[in-house]
Write a structure and sequence with these properties.
The structure holds 2 protein chains of 2 kinds. By secondary structure, chain A is mostly helical. Chain A has one domain. Chain A has 4 helices and 2 strands, in the order αααββα. Chain A has a two-stranded antiparallel ribbon with strand order 1-2. In chain A, helix 1 crosses helix 2. Chain B is α+β, with helices and mostly antiparallel strands. Chain B has a single domain, classed as Alpha-Beta Plaits (2-Layer Sandwich), CATH 3.30.70.20. Chain B contains 7 helices and 11 strands. In chain B, the strands form 5 sheets. In chain B, strands 10-3-11 form a 3-stranded mixed beta sheet. In chain B, a hairpin with a 5-residue loop joins strand 6 and strand 7. Chain B is globular. The two termini of chain B are 26 Å apart. The chains are: A mainly alpha, B alpha+beta. At the A-B interface, helix 2 and helix 3 of A face strand 2 and helix 5 of B.
């Protein structure tokens, strides 16, 4: 508990330093309900993810679609599966809904993506 | 025109270990902090290669008139059944334009009057006209013979739909509300049968249409592997390629047409 708190503090500090992003995930999803909330790290170091996650995903998208490589930590489906939060009833809340993990930061940073016009925004089971 | 590449050859063929289970792993970055790894069933970790050419053999004599099982299964597998008719849209137009990866088609021999019913889908040509005409490279043929659309580069021009002799491609005309994680889709792109590419890449051995066919009319497999069920069947029965005159060397073959 204490370790986690220390880490969050560090993360908040790092956010401020790295990109001037002070993001609060204040959507409909319940705090702590994402798989990611119960883990200490992402698929790459947090500071790297913050700056480079789109490069990881876009690289992944090419090798998955053209080369059929599916054994990976960087699939878009994987990001969503781990980062999606649940509402009070336990149903997943779309990652691109206002205030949710992907959207909160993109809104803040003014990044707009079209990925979710096609890609599911919460796990569908297959 | 180059040599057909679907002759059985077993050189350098990788044995694919279906059923192997992925193991969750973690890498240490700092004491007590582990980077996460995502476990998956039996996903590919190497690029697909041309040692394999996927294809199908369809025995039309087993295809019952009126049966739609393969189409229904395909719709379900690929989330096509989740598409809804836009409000106020014309029924006939919707029926004509709704995306379908398989259609059931009746072929009539004008000389004899003999009619055969068959499922028609992307024929996974070795020389695909859709790929030839695509201005962005979105329409492509994967090393293992699967012809598909990279929808990240598709601009929706629909040249490929015009070029396809089999009428096998669909266009997404409206924004898509419901979709599966496995089959993303959105307005403005072309799509077609991709031989259940997710199953291919995750160690599966069948297609959804094949699984659904109670008559066993569809055999899927590697045309280059002489021991595969599809190659074995093709060596036993006379088979045809539809519109063989176009010399596209299709990966989907039929008997009893």
């Amino acid at each position: 508990m204490k370790g986690k708190f220390g880490l969050s503090l560090l993360m908040a500090l790092c956010l401020g330093l790295c990109g001037g992003l002070g993001v609060v995930y204040a959507g409909e999803g319940v705090e702590g309900s994402a798989k990611a909330d119960r883990l200490d790290a992402c698929v790459a170091p947090t500071a790297f993810m913050r700056r480079n996650h789109f490069e990881l995903i876009e690289h992944q998208r090419h090798i998955t679609v053209h080369e059929g490589i599916r054994k990976t930590d960087n699939s878009l489906a994987g990001c969503i599966d781990c980062h999606v939060r649940r509402d009070a009833q336990g149903s997943p809340v779309p990652v691109n809904a206002p205030g949710e993990f992907c959207a909160a930061c993109h809104e803040y940073a003014g990044a707009s993506l079209d990925c979710f016009t096609c890609h599911a925004t919460k796990p569908t089971g297959n | 025109m180059s040599q057909p590449t679907d002759q059985p050859s077993n050189t350098g063929r990788r044995e694919f270990l279906a059923g192997a289970t992925g193991v969750a792993a973690a890498t240490v970055v700092a004491p007590g902090v582990f980077l996460q790894s995502v476990a998956n069933a039996a996903p590919r970790d190497t690029a697909v290669s041309s040692d394999v050419r996927y294809g199908m053999l369809i025995d039309t004599s087993k295809c019952a008139d009126g049966c739609n099982d393969c189409v229904t299964a395909c719709d379900k597998e690929n989330g096509l059944d989740m598409l809804v008719k836009p409000e106020g849209a014309d029924d006939e137009l919707w029926d004509m334009q709704r995306p379908r990866w398989i259609r059931t088609v009746k072929l009539r021999n004008n000389l004899t009057g003999h009619v055969s019913t068959l499922p028609m889908m992307c024929q996974h040509c070795e020389h695909p006209p859709c790929v030839d005409v695509c201005p962005t490279g979105a329409s492509f043929r994967r090393a293992d013979g699967i012809v598909m659309v990279d929808r990240h580069t598709c601009i929706g021009c629909r040249y490929c739909m015009m070029a396809c002799p089999y009428n096998a491609r669909s266009f997404i005309h409206e924004a898509v509300q419901f979709k599966l994680t496995a089959t993303p889709r959105g307005k403005g792109c072309v799509e077609s049968c991709n031989l259940c590419v997710q199953r291919r890449d995750n160690g599966g051995t069948t297609t959804a249409c094949q699984d659904a066919c109670k008559q066993g009319a569809i055999v899927f497999g590697d045309l280059k592997d002489p021991n595969s069920a599809v190659s074995q069947a093709m060596s036993k029965y006379p088979t045809v390629q539809i519109r063989a005159d176009l010399k596209l060397n299709t990966g989907v073959r039929y008997t009893d047409v």
